[in-house]
């Protein structure tokens, strides 16, 4: 799959050896600033923790690097949800210790169930809201495990843990404020650039649809993946701009409208390998008008006044296509121009929201949420894996009476929770394990060879800062970010600095061994226990969406087209990403099929909207059709036959009343369902997953 079509221009290729260490010897200014500010924040947090004589000051350093993100909005979101998750986990730990004192085989299953529940719920959330759930899971485990041998002190251990978290968050936030200048302005520029990129890629895709590119549906899937990525990233510049600014809501509305536009055009062509617009007469002129719009759209900029020319052309095309729809000589010409007029309405609405991002209207209170897919089976699997890992670690501890067993359980919980937040939990596990090994090497070098020769905190802070700075540079590099995440989280924990103590060789080796072993166990669990497979996900999505199509015909309160498109785009984006990660070339047909299913669902919802406009003979015909589709399924030979029979009946009505725009819209929806469902049935008969 050629996702490079939707990525920025060419990049400079370094030699293999130089490219591997480029992040270290030639870092970007942003990477240096990120590493420097978080290194300083870590040193300050550690100094305060030592001054307060906290029992585990290393957790303050680990919190700084856990919260630290390259974008300020990401750090702010993660810090807020980290505090929420920590408090929930501390409360759960107190409850479990109080409920099961000295009863290990009631205590461990309770903790495992809690971890499984948190991982299950985290799968349904986006960004750092999911992090709050998994954090509440492994915070509960860390506090409860630490308090298992002294249950009377569980409250104080929980307070101590919360203190580390708040201290690390405050230090990271304070340092980031010093390094951040003009944050709202830069956040708006970032959001504008993201939306501009979506419009430019839309121009590329629209040109391919008009020119009948054979890979249009594949590129539409890649476009969906890009829309999902932009949607997930919009939350953070919106946070940086402030809650009172609704630019993020307008940007999400832009994504919804352009996604509906693309899905309409997929329904217009029906997924068939043929041109939407022919090379004759009025349709040839229509194609020329659309190609000129593509040129304008590809060069548009979201600046004050810069969108006016594009907007005026879209308004002109909407009126032109509406006239051709009303006065066309042939039925198919009228239907085609009716659909194109509707797409221009979608694009006009999207451009209105683009203008609101840069120049918000007075007293703007606009709110918009783009729907997403909720995978219950993946959530169940994530919860089951986390619970199984905890039970296995507890079994090892109970059978061996290993002194480091409690730490082994705590780290296993932490790593399983982090993996559970990912769509594909298997991806990145090896890099995380390599980061754990590097954290043990770095902490061992400090503990065993350097710290014995240092006499004051200033010397220690300077040496530790070098190790942390390197980790910060690695976190800004895509190839080493996964390992750097483990390094920043685990290295301070292995270092175990204290005011009156120094880690000896035996203590360090035991801690390093159970840490690396816990990460290795977590990696094995996610790779061996119900492992994630992109092919199984495609099959699951296909079964789910076929059931949803029947429910769309039946439910009393159908969802909005925006919700349906948001959910469908989320599914398609996941399929594209996971197929790319696994280099699965067989996924192309499945992605095409999912796009066509999405188009069928959109046309069903549009039919239901037309049905609600007024009560007449047309609405009665639509009602009878929807009831038949519930019985026979929309994507089936009998369902297609029912749609075609209904279309013939309404076509006779349209001939008797050729100026009826509502009938043309209904016929366009029926054509979209018929053609696209026919292509779906043919693809499934050919064995497409």
TrEMBL record:
<keyword id="KW-1133">Transmembrane helix</keyword>
<feature type="transmembrane region" description="Helical">
    <location>
        <begin position="378"/>
        <end position="396"/>
    </location>
</feature>
<feature type="transmembrane region" description="Helical">
    <location>
        <begin position="589"/>
        <end position="607"/>
    </location>
</feature>
<feature type="transmembrane region" description="Helical">
    <location>
        <begin position="81"/>
        <end position="100"/>
    </location>
</feature>
<dbReference type="InterPro" id="IPR006726">
    <property type="entry name" value="PHBA_efflux_AaeB/fusaric-R"/>
</dbReference>
<feature type="transmembrane region" description="Helical">
    <location>
        <begin position="402"/>
        <end position="420"/>
    </location>
</feature>
<feature type="transmembrane region" description="Helical">
    <location>
        <begin position="155"/>
        <end position="181"/>
    </location>
</feature>
<feature type="transmembrane region" description="Helical">
    <location>
        <begin position="511"/>
        <end position="530"/>
    </location>
</feature>
<feature type="transmembrane region" description="Helical">
    <location>
        <begin position="457"/>
        <end position="474"/>
    </location>
</feature>
<protein>
    <submittedName>
        <fullName>Fusaric acid resistance protein</fullName>
    </submittedName>
</protein>
<keyword id="KW-1003">Cell membrane</keyword>
<keyword id="KW-0812">Transmembrane</keyword>
<dbReference type="Pfam" id="PF04632">
    <property type="entry name" value="FUSC"/>
</dbReference>
<feature type="transmembrane region" description="Helical">
    <location>
        <begin position="131"/>
        <end position="149"/>
    </location>
</feature>
<keyword id="KW-0813">Transport</keyword>
<keyword id="KW-0472">Membrane</keyword>
<feature type="transmembrane region" description="Helical">
    <location>
        <begin position="106"/>
        <end position="124"/>
    </location>
</feature>
<feature type="transmembrane region" description="Helical">
    <location>
        <begin position="432"/>
        <end position="451"/>
    </location>
</feature>
<dbReference type="GO" id="GO:0022857">
    <property type="term" value="F:transmembrane transporter activity"/>
</dbReference>
<dbReference type="GO" id="GO:0005886">
    <property type="term" value="C:plasma membrane"/>
</dbReference>
């Amino acid at each position: 799959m050629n996702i490079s079509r939707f990525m920025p221009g060419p990049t400079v290729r370094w030699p293999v050896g130089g490219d591997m260490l480029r992040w270290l010897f030639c870092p970007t200014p942003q990477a240096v600033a990120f590493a420097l500010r978080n290194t300083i924040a870590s040193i300050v947090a550690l100094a305060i923790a030592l001054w307060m004589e906290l029992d585990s000051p290393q957790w303050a350093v680990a919190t700084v690097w856990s919260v630290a993100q390259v974008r300020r909005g990401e750090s702010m979101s993660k810090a807020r949800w980290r505090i929420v998750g920590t408090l929930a986990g501390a409360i759960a730990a107190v409850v479990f210790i109080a409920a099961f004192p000295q009863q290990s085989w009631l205590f461990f299953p309770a903790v495992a169930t809690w971890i499984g529940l948190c991982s299950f719920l985290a799968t349904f959330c986006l960004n750092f809201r999911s992090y709050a759930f998994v954090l509440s899971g492994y915070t509960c485990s860390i506090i409860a495990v630490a308090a298992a041998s002294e249950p009377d002190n569980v409250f104080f251990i929980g307070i101590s843990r919360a203190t580390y978290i708040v201290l690390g968050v405050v230090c990271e936030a304070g340092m980031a404020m010093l390094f951040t200048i003009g944050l709202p302005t830069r956040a708006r520029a970032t959001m504008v650039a993201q939306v501009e990129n979506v419009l430019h890629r839309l121009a590329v895709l629209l040109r391919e649809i008009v020119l009948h590119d054979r890979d249009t549906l594949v590129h539409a899937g890649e476009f969906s993946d890009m829309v999902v990525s932009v949607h997930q990233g919009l939350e953070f510049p919106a946070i940086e701009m402030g809650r009172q600014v609704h630019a993020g809501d307008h940007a999400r509305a832009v994504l919804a409208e352009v996604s509906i536009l693309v899905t309409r055009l997929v329904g217009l062509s029906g997924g068939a390998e043929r041109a939407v617009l022919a090379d004759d007469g009025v349709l040839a002129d229509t194609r020329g008008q659309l190609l000129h719009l593509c040129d304008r759209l590809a060069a548009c900029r979201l600046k004050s006044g810069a969108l006016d020319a594009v907007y005026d052309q879209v308004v002109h095309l909407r009126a032109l296509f509406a006239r051709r729809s009303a006065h066309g000589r042939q039925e198919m010409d009228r239907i085609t121009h009716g659909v194109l007029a509707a797409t221009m309405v979608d694009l006009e609405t999207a451009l209105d929201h683009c203008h609101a991002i840069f120049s918000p209207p007075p007293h703007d209170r606009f709110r918009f949420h783009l729907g997403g897919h909720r995978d219950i089976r993946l959530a169940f699997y994530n919860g089951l894996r986390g619970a199984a890992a905890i039970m296995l670690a507890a079994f090892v501890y109970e059978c061996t009476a290993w002194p480091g067993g409690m730490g082994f359980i705590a780290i296993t919980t932490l790593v399983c929770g982090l993996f559970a937040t990912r769509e594909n939990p298997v991806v990145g596990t090896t890099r995380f394990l390599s980061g754990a090994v590097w954290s043990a090497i770095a902490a061992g070098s400090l503990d065993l060879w350097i710290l014995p020769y240092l006499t004051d905190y200033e010397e220690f802070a300077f040496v530790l800062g070098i190790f942390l700075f390197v980790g910060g540079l690695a976190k800004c590099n895509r190839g080493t970010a996964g390992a750097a995440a483990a390094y920043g989280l685990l290295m301070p924990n292995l270092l175990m600095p204290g005011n009156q103590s120094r880690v000896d060789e035996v203590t360090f080796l035991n801690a390093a061994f159970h840490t690396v072993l816990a990460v290795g166990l977590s990696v094995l669990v996610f790779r061996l226990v119900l492992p994630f497979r992109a092919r199984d996900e495609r099959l699951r999505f296909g079964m789910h969406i076929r059931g949803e199509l029947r429910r769309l015909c039946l439910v009393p309160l159908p969802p909005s087209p925006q919700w349906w498109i948001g959910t469908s785009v989320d599914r398609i984006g996941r399929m594209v990403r996971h197929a790319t990660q696994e280099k699965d070339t067989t996924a192309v047909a499945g992605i095409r099929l999912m796009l066509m299913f999405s188009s069928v669902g959109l046309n069903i919802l549009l039919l239901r909207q037309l049905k609600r406009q007024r009560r007449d003979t047309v609405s009665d015909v639509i009602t009878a059709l929807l009831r038949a589709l519930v019985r026979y399924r929309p994507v089936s030979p009998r369902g297609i036959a029912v749609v075609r029979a209904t279309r013939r009946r309404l076509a006779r009505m349209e001939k008797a009343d050729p100026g009826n725009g509502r009938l043309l819209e209904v016929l366009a929806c029926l054509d979209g369902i018929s053609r696209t469902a026919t292509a779906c049935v043919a693809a499934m008969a050919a064995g497409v997953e």
